[in-house]
């Protein structure tokens, strides 16, 4: 940014220079470049749609490996039950991933980013619901922060906004829902490798029946060990193979499904009639309701479509889901149902037994690769979500390693990787079968769905301002379906459902406790802010020396002088020639453009050369390296001084304002060379 100020002494009508009285916004407004808009060309959209196949559909695409075996753990009692279950699978795929996520939820993105944190951040910008009160007027000037305020004519949105801002309980509930959803996604990232790899490896027993289940488990554990061991290298070099491998997988399962449909029983197409669902529940009663816990596994990984939206756009995801994923998995499930109508005794390993003999080994190899890719996608998503939780003050400070210089958002957290890998291996060894793991897996899936439904309802009321009938339909239809599925899964609590609940409680407790401490610390500093006059008196004492260099004092406060500063002066009666109170603040948006990163303010008299600086980041931003950060900080500080000097000159406060500004900038350069 360059600032050109006309000399008021040479102009007839000098233009007034606007002054920022609190913190200086050091960047001009720039146009917002959204990743999810409709401005992307169709060629780019097609490319993104193809790439999305390998990133976000691995989990839901490998579900046919274990859905029927999880739905019929005790075998098929009536062949017509297959029509009811197939109908449930098809309409679950249509209602939850397609209607809810692809055509509704994807539009509730935060400047292109999706996921639970994105919804929470979106709500945070319309209503002050964050428990740490660090909002500033300058935040609204950030490009990606700009939003259309709720209309004053819509009393419902205004009423809800006031209630959310005035109710501490409402703030806590929204925050709790957010970290619960995050905990469940982490649980999903732990269970996905276990169930995907184990179900894929189990197919080898079709060609090697002498292998025991224990040996299958050991092979799965070896693959899991390798999977978690290579996480530190990232997927930069092999990520380009994900989309082709998953695309081949979809072609294979669609082709095998079509083969089974034609060869075994075309009549299963009657399952598109929802009456078979009614007949299924009438015929089976409670056991039919319990079987929903297996059916819901057909939509595992759906939340990933929303969480990974930042890498693609809405149109690309809609195109890939409706054009590739849904036809492929639907044909696969239809083909398996046709096969089971003829061979109901093979339900324990439906997928592999329904494969034509010449296609078995190619399909087995691709299934292993697809399971690994599905696991990798969930792990990458879990790391990214935890990185966002870390930036929002919900997790202890851990080392976040960026595994790619080319692709933003690819991160690796060593401690988390170790714990998730250990948990995934323990689950595989302890549960041994995909049916048992499925009891735990389903709870993570449905709980995340339910949380998204509740947060989406708030978005519709507060931000979208939709008609109340539309909102009620959304909440009642999707909420009731998810509640029915959740009640079914909870019936398996003793048989494995307790695992994700206990896991979520542990992760939630950690996140809540850490955030609580952060809030309490912030409020303490806020209640004990040191007045500027007191700081000035401290610096004017003879025993306080100004030493060469640039000093930074980190504080959570975005305004005011922290209470630790007087204590520091008492212990070490010296201050650097240039001194800054530095805050790192995470805004409730996905990204802050670098030119809008810093805001400054002069603290005390100008001759003291003390400043307040706030460095602002979005929850998806990565922190710069120390040297890069320092260079950028100094550059922006000099621009701030130039602005202040220009303001003084324009207001004719001092004739030598421009010269003084140049002298200060030169002084900064000298002090930086002495040390920072």
From TrEMBL:
Residues 662-676 have a biased composition (Basic and acidic residues). The keyword Transmembrane helix applies. Residues 651-676 are annotated as: Disordered. Residues 548-636 form the K+ potassium transporter C-terminal domain. Keywords: Ion transport, Membrane, Potassium, Potassium transport, Transmembrane, Transmembrane helix, Transport. Pfam families: K_trans, K_trans_C. The chain crosses the membrane at residues 48-68, 88-108, 211-230, 242-262, 288-307, 319-339, 359-390, 411-431, 437-463, 470-491, 497-517. It is a multi-pass membrane protein. Residues 48-535 form the K+ potassium transporter integral membrane domain. GO terms for molecular function: potassium ion transmembrane transporter activity. Its main location: membrane. GO terms for cellular component: membrane. InterPro entries: K+_transporter, K_trans_C, K_trans_N. It is found in: Membrane. Potassium transporter. Belongs to the HAK/KUP transporter (TC 2.A.72.3) family. This is Potassium transporter.
């Amino acid at each position: 940014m360059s600032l050109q100020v006309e000399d008021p002494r040479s102009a007839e009508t000098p233009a007034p220079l606007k002054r920022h009285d609190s913190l200086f916004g050091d960047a001009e407004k720039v146009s917002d470049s959204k990743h999810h808009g409709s401005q992307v060309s169709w060629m780019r959209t097609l490319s993104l749609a193809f790439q999305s196949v390998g990133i976000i559909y691995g989990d839901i695409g490998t579900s046919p490996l274990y859905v029927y075996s999880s739905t019929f753990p005790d075998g098929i009692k009536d062949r017509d039950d297959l029509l009811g279950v197939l109908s449930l699978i098809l309409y679950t795929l249509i209602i939850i991933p397609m209607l809810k996520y692809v055509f509704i939820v994807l539009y509730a993105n935060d400047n292109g980013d999706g996921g639970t944190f994105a919804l929470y951040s979106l709500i945070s910008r319309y209503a002050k619901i964050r428990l740490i009160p660090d909002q500033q007027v300058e935040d609204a000037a950030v490009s990606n922060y700009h939003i259309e305020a709720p209309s004053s004519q819509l009393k419902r949105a205004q009423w809800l906004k006031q209630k959310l801002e005035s109710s501490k309980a409402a703030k806590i509930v929204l925050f709790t829902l957010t970290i619960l959803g995050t905990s469940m996604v982490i649980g999903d990232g732990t269970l996905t490798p276990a169930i995907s790899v184990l179900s894929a490896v189990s197919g080898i027993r079709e060609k090697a029946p002498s292998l025991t289940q224990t040996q299958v488990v050991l092979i799965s554990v070896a693959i899991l060990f390798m999977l978690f061991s290579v996480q530190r290298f990232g997927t930069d070099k092999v990520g380009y193979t994900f989309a082709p491998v998953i695309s081949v997988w979809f072609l294979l399962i669609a082709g095998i499904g079509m083969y089974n449909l034609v060869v075994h029983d075309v009549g299963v197409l009657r399952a598109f009639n929802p009456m078979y669902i009614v007949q299924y529940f009438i015929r089976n009663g409670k056991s039919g309701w319990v079987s929903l816990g297996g059916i819901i596994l057909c939509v595992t990984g759906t939340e990933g479509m929303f969480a990974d939206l930042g890498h693609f756009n809405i149109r690309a995801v809609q195109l890939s889901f409706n054009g590739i994923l849904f036809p492929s998995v639907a044909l696969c499930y239809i083909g398996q149902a046709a096969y089971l109508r003829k061979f109901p005794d093979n339900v324990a390993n439906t997928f592999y037994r329904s494969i034509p003999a010449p296609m078995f080994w190619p399909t087995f190899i691709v299934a292993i690769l697809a399971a690994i890719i599905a696991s990798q996608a969930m792990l990458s998503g879990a790391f990214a979500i935890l990185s966002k939780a870390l930036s929002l003050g919900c997790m202890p400070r851990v080392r976040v390693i960026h595994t790619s210089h080319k692709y933003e958002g690819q991160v690796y957290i060593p401690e988390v990787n170790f714990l998730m890998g250990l948990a995934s291996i323990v689950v595989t060894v302890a549960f041994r079968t995909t049916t048992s793991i499925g009891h735990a897996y389903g709870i993570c899936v449905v709980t995340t769905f339910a949380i998204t439904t509740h947060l989406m309802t708030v978005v519709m009321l507060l931000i979208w301002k939709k008609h109340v009938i539309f909102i009620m339909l959304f909440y009642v239809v999707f909420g009731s379906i998810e509640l029915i599925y959740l009640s079914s899964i909870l019936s398996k609590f003793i048989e494995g459902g307790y695992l994700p609940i206990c896991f979520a409680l542990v992760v939630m407790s950690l996140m809540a406790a850490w955030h609580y401490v952060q809030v309490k610390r912030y409020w303490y500093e806020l209640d004990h802010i040191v007045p500027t006059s007191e700081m000035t008196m401290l610096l004017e004492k003879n025993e306080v020396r100004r030493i060469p260099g640039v000093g930074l004092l980190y504080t959570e406060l975005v305004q005011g002088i922290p209470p630790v500063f007087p204590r520091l002066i008492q212990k070490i009666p010296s201050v650097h020639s240039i001194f800054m109170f530095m805050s790192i603040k995470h805004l409730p948006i996905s990204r802050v453009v670098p030119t809008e990163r810093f805001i400054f303010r002069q603290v005390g008299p100008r001759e003291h050369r003390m400043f307040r600086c706030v460095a602002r980041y979005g929850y998806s931003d990565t922190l710069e390296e120390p040297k890069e950060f320092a260079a950028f900080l100094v550059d922006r500080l000099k621009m701030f001084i130039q602005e202040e000097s220009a303001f003084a000159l324009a207001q004719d406060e001092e004739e030598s304002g421009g010269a003084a500004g140049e002298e200060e900038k030169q002084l900064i350069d000298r002090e930086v060379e002495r040390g920072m």
